[in-house]
Amino acid sequence: MDTNEPEDDPVKEAPVPRRRAQGLGRDIIIDACLKLAGGSDADALSFRKIGKAIGADPTALYRHFADKDELLLALADRVIAVGMEGYVPGPRWEESLRDLMLRTRASFLRYPQVATLAALRVTRQKGELEFIEAMLAALELAGFERREAALVYRACGDFMLAWTGFSAGLVLLGEQSAQDDNAWVRSYQDVSEQQYPLAVSSVALMAGVQDEENYRFALDLLLGGIAARLGN
Amino acid sequence: MDTNEPEDDPVKEAPVPRRRAQGLGRDIIIDACLKLAGGSDADALSFRKIGKAIGADPTALYRHFADKDELLLALADRVIAVGMEGYVPGPRWEESLRDLMLRTRASFLRYPQVATLAALRVTRQKGELEFIEAMLAALELAGFERREAALVYRACGDFMLAWTGFSAGLVLLGEQSAQDDNAWVRSYQDVSEQQYPLAVSSVALMAGVQDEENYRFALDLLLGGIAARLGN
DNA sequence: ACCTGAACACCGTTCAAGT
DNA sequence: ACCTGAACACCGTTCAAGT
């Protein structure tokens, strides 16, 4: 618990803002980073660029975070926490699960640099705790007992995180290197139709699927599988 | 180019291996890269390290690949192709889908550096074509018509690729930065049980789930959802 | 106590030069 | 025709030095 940890000392040593006029602090840095992220610059979160953004030497960051990894975890947790704002569990567990797995993804995709770098990490902080608690509550409502709920949570959580990291990578790739759908279709014009009849005849259909609708489609399949599992 | 070979050869200008004694060529480079990948070195695939491995200057690679991206796509396609070796479609479509989504993942995870860097790319080459053709054949066998099959293919393919990239990232993170399960459990000892009762009481269960079983569990949920979709 | 700035060991990539 | 090696513009990180 690195965020707002309750201090043991009774007197509560004051923050001593003496040198805090232009001083930093974790939250100021996190705010600046999230302002930097979101653009199309794939490595907007380098220490040198962050340093420029906060008007301090890049290495000043080491005064507040042990290393880049710790900074990224803090960013990821804040992104999750922001995504949880305004969440209210509904009466139907499927809707709650779906809501949680869409809103957290959406929040990450607003900061794709954070998503690519930290989506595979467990932050073990406030935002993640709220997300987990809400997911488990929905699964309990669905009728899963504890062990089963833990399994399903892991499947859903990692499904969402993995796919979101994947999507963020696509966003940051951008137009680069002919990743676009047209290039996919075009490159299949030289492919032997005898050898790969299904692939060739379906390439336009496959390429036409956008990532966001694809995620929602897969998510609904997954939720359908969970519901089916409850059935028996 | 005068060679030692008989001249004026009218038929099929020979490959002329004159300067090919230590010469390179794409396949030699790809073989060397796959030998380099697989270890625990997260950036084993830097141009400098590849250059050392093939006994050539790092920049010699630019003679055979336009840039690193093109090299990675070639590597990824080879990894997919290797994964497809020995695949035979079975009579049951669910089993074929499952097989394809396990063997391709397994092949990628043998070369985690390739998986993290290229799992989100469409290679548009031989290995990927074989994979797509086999997947679509299984879905046709299941009874999906073309448009539906394309949708389900995209969901399954990206599910597998996204999660595999995620898993490869975990592998390369390794023991680093306390990503391990024990750290997760330990860090929850300070968490308020009143505020997050479900999360705290389930952390050991959640942390105990290994990535590979988690993937298989989610995969079965997904396949279950696909089967349910066919039902109506 | 906090920040600076040079330095270190790395990246991918370019380009004039070698043979 | 193919390869080399210095150079460029970047990384994250360390550490002695400033105030």
UniProtKB/TrEMBL annotation, chains A, B:
InterPro entries: Homeodomain-like_sf, HTH-type_TetR-like_transc_reg, HTH_TetR, Repressor_TetR_C, Tet_transcr_reg_TetR, Tet_transcr_reg_TetR-rel_C_sf
DNA-binding region: 46-65
HTH tetR-type domain location: 23-83
The keyword Signal belongs to this UniProt entry's keyword annotation: no
Pfam families referenced in this protein's UniProt entry, alphabetically: TetR_C_1, TetR_N
Keyword field: DNA-binding, Repressor, Transcription, Transcription regulation
Listed PROSITE patterns: HTH_TETR_2
Name of the protein in its database record: AcrR family transcriptional regulator
